[in-house]
Fold these 4 entries.
Entry 1:
Amino acid sequence: MKLSKKIFTPLLVSTFSLVSTTVLVCSCSSNSNTYTFVLSTPSNEGDYNVFANNVAKKFNELKAKDETTSSLADITINVKNIDDKQTKLNSVLNGSADFTFVTARYLYNNDVYLQVKPLIQTLTTPFTFDTDISQVYKDGSETDPLRVIANNMQKASFGSDFVQTTSDTSTSSSNSGSSSSTSASKWSWDSNSYHYFSQWKDAKGAAPNYDWNGVRYNAFYDTSAPLVAGYRGMIVLSGSDDKIQSAIEAWDKRDWNSFRNLGIVLGENGSTGNYLLEQSLIKQHFTSLGQDFTLANDRSQNPGKYDTDSSGTYKIGKDSNFVITFSDEGSFSWTHNDNSNQDFSPINNNKIKILTVTNPANYDIGIFSKSVDTKIADLLTQAIVALAQDDPEGVGVNSYGAGMGYNGFSKISDFKKEVYDPMQLALG
């Protein structure tokens, strides 16, 4: 689940929790037993100071149980509350902090991961409609795994899907007495049970009762499935039925000009979930564009066909000149219908059609400063992993992590295989 500060006070987003370090190494603090974590503000009531104290406590417990580390002094953790992603990374790079969580893309870009110790992969509860994060782009057709996920998401959230049906029409010739049949295609919503976002309820039960828990709609999450290490973007359509149909047909025909000319609302050009993932998918699907294609260059040549919405939720369907929106996958799941916001609320009572999701990117990565001893960093990693295992519901020692969308953590054993290669596939 990609939570965002904008929604709860987006990420989507962005995404995961913390770590600390101890004695044998040089800490950025003047006290070698005190370490500095840089942590963001969670969307719930989870307290990053309490979380840091829990990490230190668990670390001290773990090292005491191992005779090879039991002689180490106990540690404490100080917290700097910083939300800006680049500033968090810089804090570890310049030595003013010992640990933070950063966007995986920042480590992938320019091989920054080589300058830190990336040891923790944050995990999150999967969506009911997307439990297999390994699914990737095949051919972009209706049977493509990414389109199938989108269709399942459509059913789970908005109820009714916009589909194409084919009917046979018969014609006869009065002269010859013969008859022939032709196929006619028609696009329509497949049921009358479309659930407008404004109709969504907090209660638990049949749709559109989606069980809001103060952070997310529980109905969209599969708590029985294994946690996942990635998230996706999605391409959403909204407008008149004719315009939605035109967008789908342009996609199926790989006609980029017709697709783009329907108008695209995208996120900031540094955003992973509602800009870069979609850009990569577009280059894969509209192959005639070439690998040097960028949305920024296309926007400079067609400025009237683009608009920006950093949330990826507010401007969906708000302007009839912009049919296409980029957003984080399932961003509605952590956007509360409190009868006051205007997210997912198109004009003219128009509906929303989720066209496709993107290839997955890794969730946030927990990184240590290079100055932190490897053995200490490993122990801290064990401590953070253990906190989530001790509190799978995210209501106790990992309540902070849950408020960041970090429902679990795992140790990274092979960064290239587990993070770098998937990011390369996602971003190109």
Entry 2:
Amino acid sequence: MEISSAVTMGLAAGTYMFLFCIISYYINNLLFRKDVGEIGMFISFGKPLYRYHGNKGIRINFGYIPLGSYINFKTEELPVPVAIDDVEIAYNKKRIQMLNLVVLGVVVLVLFTTTYILGYDPVKIFKDILSVEYHLITQKLLYKDLAAVVSEHYEKYGKYFFLCFVLVVQFIISLVLVFVLSLWDYLGLVLAVLLLIAYFKYNLAFFIFPVTFYIDALLALVVSGFIYFLLLRFFIK
């Protein structure tokens, strides 16, 4: 995988996170009409790396873990008197679950509609990507043989379209996982244990690209993510 592919993936990931913030914000305003307290590009535990205040006093954060973007709701809407900690968690958790489902539906609709307009079969591409990923993880397809498979898809669908499709598929999978894991507090721990067992039992491979690929993609993601973070002030009204 050449540098341009890694940079494309990083830029596309940053763009997706940026759009996720905007789509989530306006879907919330349209369907749930709950006040948003903060919007974040990248995740942080505690204080973010940088923050500014946008429209309606919304805090816009830039975190230090580039694994996603998010929105949080204000807590002033909670009924009182209550035990704030417990009710806040339950109250926001339900809304986040519904919001994730709606965003997932929008992402799938846009992806499949765009693909159909371009004259491709999105279901077939989706299945092909999942099949390749499965064979890579189980090492039935080795990295040295991956270039030929990827080149074939580049020729069939176009390089940048296919890379963006691959990335959006990963985010669809992540949104599904976020929703499923939110149904039970300990489900994430159970899944992590199962993956760890499967890793050693079946000799799985989760990181198959050279280190330089991940570095290039990460740099592109961080740079584009910071630019998008600054641009959010113009899109959150």
Entry 3:
Amino acid sequence: MRDVHPAPPRRRPSAPRPRAAAPRKRQRARRPVDSAPLFVRILTHNAAIICAVILAVGAGVFYFSPGKGAPPVAAGMSVEQLGDLMNQQSDMDPVTANAVAYAKQRAYEKQVKADRLLVEKAKKDAKAAAALKAKRDAAKKAAALAKANPTSAQNQALGKQMNALKGWSGCWPSLLTMWTHESHWNERADNPGSDAYGIPQALPGSKMASSGPNWQTNSATQIAWGLGYIKARYHDPCGAWSFWQAHHWY
């Protein structure tokens, strides 16, 4: 007897797997056709709007920019009236124009002159103030020297004696007062503002060398020179003092 083997069970064929559906392409939505007219679409376009805004701003700046100039047309006047006004102004004759120019020139020159005078006055005032200060300082110095110098009274006594020898005893008060103003009878009095020196304030002091080489320190030499100068110019101390009172120098 043949062994009968049971037949293997048959496999049922598996159902085929469904394929993945291919992705569909997205179709762009179509813009609706604008039915507006062409010129409306141009005017409403962004580029057109921007250009219009730029032109409007430029026109505003041109016509309404701040400044001192007059507007293009004066208020209440037409262009024709402005033209007539300009024609009237341009009819100025050369004589009138020259007169206006001359007046302007004179005004300018007057202003320049006034400015120059102010500058010169400031310089003169400064120079005068410096000279006055130097004079005051010299006077203070001379006064201090006269007080400190014990020979001041001796110089006056010597001057009185020499003045009498000239025959001018009656003019002694004039000489005493005048040389007191000049030097306080100090043989070393030096005026830095004028280089005048000594009791008679010889200008310059070296002129007294004609009376002696010791003119810088010797009172007799200085008095002798001073009396000689007074005689030559004013005849005597009375005349010299009279001139000094009127001019503050002799």
Entry 4:
Amino acid sequence: MKPRIGHIRLDRLNVRHLVRMFEAIADENEVIAAENQQRREQVVRCKPSKAGRPVAAERERLAAERAKLAEMKPYCRITGPATRQSIRRTLRAALNSAISEQLITFNAAAHVELESGKRPKPLLWTAERVRRWRETGEIPSAVMVWTPEQFGEYLDAAEDDDLYAFFHLVGTRGLRRGEGVGQDWTEVDLVGGSITPAKELVVDGWDVYESEPKTDGSASTIALDSLNVTVLTAHRQRQEETKRARLARGETWHDTGKVFTQEDGSWLHPETVSETFRRILATTDLPPITLRDLRHVAATLTHGGGGDIHAVKETLRHSTIALTSDTYTSLLPELDREIAEKAAQLIPRRAARTPGLTSLTHGGRERRSAPPSKARRGTEAQVRSYEALPATGRPCRTRTDNQRIKSPGKIMPDGFDRSPVVLFCLVSEDRLAGRSGPGWRVLARPLTHRSRIQRG
């Protein structure tokens, strides 16, 4: 606010001043977006055109392109709609306080209209989005989430770093950056497997101070899985070894009681963690995310591991379940397919009753039709042919020499499927086995259009 309206007297601040301030922010956003796009295009030009060692001419071209990239401005973040809403909200609260102290009588911030500051929806780094990002350098959303395989690849790259336990904890249990660097050992129960983020380190400019958590619910106790307990136990042993080694050399050790500290035990600056995260990410071939996006990864892993939306809310310690539902539930593709399969299983369907024909339903079992209760005996083959009725229920105009058969649908035994594409034959087992005796066998074959039924 200082370069925009800091020079204006409080009692002379009006709506027009604030409108100009937000218009200047929007103009600056356009400049930042253009510069970021130019840098992304330059990054693409800095990549070799073919795999393998480039030739001499290619190396000269790449060196020149990389020199141009080094002179360009780094990537910058634009001031999005949510941030602009936050600026107006802060300014409105400050002016309301001035009104209560009778310094002014009008709140100009209350009359400024801005676009809605909706939260961006997290998107998963699928294979197609990764391919598109490698080709163009474009990131689909402001909030991107790694898959479990991608997060595992990052942990493999960070395993030898002193902050490996920090990234593992944040990516699986969803602690905020300030909560992670402000975590005390007294609030970690490695035996019972639980952790309570009771403090956080906040950055004011560049200075760091300790404060209470973001909300009252943020100080809730969450469970620690066995893998996190193992990682934190190993981290504590290394920290104790570093402490003993420094004291043995006569060096100072600041006993702050924090889980993650500098080499001398003092507070760890939150920005140091972010810089370490970016440095390790640069050594991998992973698509980019921010340190805060690891919290989204934790939410997705919790949901993908079987936790419902309430479990995700409790893990992330949100104030309302609506915030959790709107922001942090980007489901994994594998989980989507599993849910779709379970939903299909809920549909009851009749199983197939004809041998050789399998039901289209999930888990359908093939059942044999019951033989007719009154079967004729004889040594001669007794063959009766039936053609199933169409869906309309009318006869299908099948001709037969047996005058006693008036309609195929009238004499079909119970249990036969009335399918319009199947020909059913009852053949005496006397003929099949070469002996007399009761019993019938059911045969089925597809019936072509206008097939004629022959006597067996």
